[in-house]
Write a structure and sequence with these properties.
Helix 3 links the parallel strand 4 and strand 5. This protein is α/β, with parallel strands linked by helices. The chain contains six helices and 15 strands. The protein has one domain: Rossmann fold (3-Layer(aba) Sandwich), CATH 3.40.50.2020. The N and C termini lie far apart (41 Å). The longest helix is centred in the first third of the chain and has 19 residues. The protein is globular. The strands form four sheets. Strands 1, 4, 5, 6, 7, 8, 10 and 12 form an eight-stranded mixed β-sheet that branches. Strands 9-11-13 form a three-stranded parallel β-sheet. A two-stranded antiparallel ribbon has the order 2-3.
């Protein structure tokens, strides 16, 4: 069974067009990225386990449900920050960790410069988020870090991916579920996704 899920929905496609457009300004780009993340969350969480909880309505006692497992949202800095609020608004009980990575200019490998997680991560479902799954190097490094922390389950959530990045991630961690809003054509010679949406971090924060 494939662990790759491309989530098709009219609203997602509509909003993807907005963030792909080079004319979209920082404010609208940032807001739309958050909105797409929220839409993805409905599908990502579809199979989360529940446990019964007895409550009392204004009329009578009844059995309801709550999430069985803790959820931890972990953005890869800095672009992943743009997706946090959209997901957290729907899962407000989720804790948030952070992973900071940079690319070694000589080896081109992803290197850790920051990692901080809530204590609950060992018993939690981790949503690892980054708008772009390009080469896959950063995502693979982030999963390696999370596994060292004994994360219970890791789900990658992105907006746009490349076939090369998806293939590399699946080879490295075939058990990891991958959720994307779109799988694009390819990587170009500079490692950018085509057609993609440019540098997500720069477009989110108005930097160059």
């Amino acid at each position: 069974m494939s662990q790759l899920h491309i989530l098709k929905h009219p609203l997602i496609d509509h909003k993807l067009t907005i963030i792909r457009n080079k004319e979209t300004k920082t404010k609208e780009f940032r807001e739309t990225v958050s909105e797409i993340a929220a839409l993805l969350t409905y599908e990502i969480t579809r199979n989360l386990s529940l446990k019964e909880k007895e409550i009392e309505t204004p009329v009578s006692k009844t059995l309801g449900f709550e999430l069985k497992d803790e959820v931890v949202i972990v953005p890869i800095l800095r672009a992943g920050l743009g997706m946090v609020d959209g997901i957290h608004n729907l899962i407000p009980s989720a804790k948030i960790g952070h992973i900071g990575l940079y690319r070694d200019e000589e080896t081109l490998e992803a290197k850790e410069y920051y990692a901080k997680f809530p204590l609950e991560i060992e018993n939690s479902i981790v949503l690892l988020i980054d708008p772009m799954l390009a080469t896959g190097n950063s995502t693979i490094k982030a999963i390696e870090i999370l596994k060292e922390k004994k994360a219970k389950e890791i789900i990658f959530v992105g907006l746009v991916g490349s076939p090369e990045g998806v293939e590399k991630l699946q080879k490295a961690y075939p058990e990891t579920k991958i959720y994307l809003a779109a799988l694009d054509e390819k990587l170009n010679e500079n490692g950018y996704i085509v057609p993609g949406l440019g540098d997500a971090g720069d477009r989110l924060f108005g930097t160059k």
